[in-house]
Amino acid sequence: MEYRQLGGSGLRVPVLSFGTATFGGGNEFFKAWGATQADEAKRLVNLCLDAGVNLFDTANVYSAGASEEILGKALAGIRNKVLISTKATFPLGDGINDYGSSRFNLVKSCEESLKRLNTDHIDVYHLHGFDANTPVEETLSALNNLVQSGKVRYIACSNFSGWHLMKSLSVSERYGWAKYIAHQAYYSLLNRDFEWELMPLAIDQHVGTIVWSPLAAGRLSGKYKRDQPLPENARVAQGGSPIPESAVSNEVFYNIIDVLEEVAAETGKTVAQVSLNWLLQRPTVSNIIIGARNEEQLKLNLASVGWNLTLEQVKRLDAVSEVPPVYPYWHQREFPMLNAAPKLYPQ
Predict the structure, then answer these.
(1) Residue 206: which region, alpha, beta or left (left: phi > 0; alpha: psi -120 to 50)?
(2) Domains along the chain?
(3) Any idea which residues carry the catalytic annotation?
């Protein structure tokens, strides 16, 4: 297993982490992801550890806390060997203060997550989204207090826009508070919007990228093929996709699938493994979250590391997945001499 620094921090993480949104199956949405219970969760955790994956990602809203509880049970007796990432901010309850990034909710959410996970600290604590109704100073002060208390080791964010993240980093720097070391963001061959603003920001500010849904909610798993019926047992068909259909262009999608199948045949790997390996070549990517409903899926995803696509294969995938950017990014591309463009390819 390869390990990388998480952003500008001193924390080293494996390039793959295990996402536990499949634990619990608390409602129809999460049942489409999976309904793993404690015994199977323990087996999956052990498979990860055998492969060198020691980072486990969850969130308080995954199956209304059940994911955290099951993960806590699966990690019993081995807590000192692993890193735990969890999240807050999204609604978890019917109370008027049961959501958001206020001091009230963050402190409450952290305490509740610690209990469910059966631990005394969270290694990476994310805001699951940006709360525009709470002052950024209040949010970051509360997170800094959690770090100072030892309940949280590092803070990170998820699903922020560029100005959300930059303003937050600026406030932390102004007051000498803990800074976001990572941004958990959606990024895949099917949707490369992340590259337009968030990737350059992450390069400039040394923020590591943790990728969620790297297979585009299973669309890049190898189950989808041109001129064939959509798989009925897939997460998209079952209503469990966090990625809207409006973000998917069928023509671009199947063009990508065609090239993925070509590269998979050349490498002797699966379509999913090629998709994951492509992401590992991208700037700022510190970690990719992989999920699995069963041991077979997990073993296949774990095999996406330990090898690399060739530069020619990466460029082919880049070309077929390229889409015209929105303004102002298309305008900025007309003046490349002014841009500190990400170095996508080794020299």
Answers:
(1) left
(2) 3-338 (3.20.20.100)
(3) 62
